[in-house]
Design brief:
By secondary structure, the protein is mainly alpha-helical. The chain contains twelve helices and no strands. The protein has one domain. It starts with a helix and ends in a 10-residue tail after the last helix. It comes from Mycolicibacterium hodleri.
């Protein structure tokens, strides 16, 4: 009997763990390749989706924007994103006014709101709201279709499942995120101003002076670019986990959890790398203005 056979018979768990550890780099590369194939296929099928599945695309645009069922009653994704960004803008004003007041420069709260909302808070908050509503719903929906063999039925009928289910959602998310994020930025701006002027008593003129002075149009434009990138990544991530869900209803729940964790990490990484690329060497503002 060989040494390997003896070790397997005496220490089966340790040997199995060692084999899993040794094969982890290969499994990691295999998963990266599988994800890359899925992304390339989904993006490459956008033209096919535009040609054959325009009605489904329009339906998804309406569903992502306003929701369905009970979610539509409260305003859908628009209401959720608006409420979350409203809360985020208020918190920025509260923390900014209190922290700046400690050194006697609470007049700079408008500057703080213009800087943090556009560059950090609004992209992160809007991305998280999108992932928690639209993304998680897409994962659950596609996962349910997978375990009930509906996706296999689409393939049997000659329908390209990735184009019909993933590319259409990708385009719908791209279309919806632009007006959705515009509303999110406006809500965060209004919340910060209302909190500072109404609750803390700062004059509207002082707040608007520093806010308008330090709000740069190119920062707003780059913020929209970040939101679009985040929406594409979130939709691809959630569709991937839902499309390849397995293990019955429990597997669908696990897929939703994994997709949410991946989306939360991806959102922060996108904002981090964008901030490093855009503002890492030059913050693009001068407090002596």
């Amino acid at each position: 009997m060989s040494t390997t056979a003896v070790l397997k018979s005496r220490f089966p768990r340790a040997v199995a763990g060692g084999e899993r550890l040794a094969s982890s780099p290969a499994r990691f590369l295999d998963s990266i390749g599988h994800i890359a194939w899925f992304v390339v296929t989904a993006v490459g099928s956008i033209g096919h989706a535009f040609r054959y599945y325009r009605k489904e695309m329009l339906r998804l645009v309406a569903e992502i924007g306003m929701g369905t069922g009970a979610m539509a009653v409260i305003g859908g994704t628009v209401a959720i994103v608006g409420f979350v960004t409203l809360s985020g803008g208020s918190l920025i004003a509260i923390q900014g006014f209190a922290s700046l007041g400690n050194i006697g420069v609470e007049a700079f709260t408008g500057f703080f709101a213009a800087l943090v909302n556009v560059r950090i808070a609004a992209p992160v908050v809007a991305g998280q709201a999108l992932a928690a509503t639209v993304g998680a719903g897409a994962t659950a929906e596609l996962g349910a279709m997978r375990i009930s063999e509906e996706i296999d039925a689409l393939e049997v009928m000659g329908i390209k499942s990735i184009s019909y289910l993933v590319s259409t959602r990708l385009v719908a998310g791209f279309v919806v995120i632009i007006p959705l994020y515009a509303m999110a930025i406006i809500m965060s701006f209004l919340a910060a101003q209302a909190t500072t002027t109404l609750f803390y008593g700062q004059s509207t003129g002082t707040y608007e002076h520093y806010f308008r002075t330090f709000l740069r149009p190119d920062d707003v434009a780059w913020s929209f670019v970040q939101a679009i990138i985040i929406s594409v990544i979130v939709m691809l991530n959630h569709c991937y986990y839902g499309f390849y869900a397995s293990g019955g209803p429990v597997g669908v729940g696990e897929a939703v959890g994994r997709s949410m964790r991946a989306s939360l990490i991806a959102i922060v990484l996108v904002v981090l790398f964008a901030s490093m690329a855009l503002y890492g060497t030059n913050a693009n503002f001068n407090l002596t203005v």
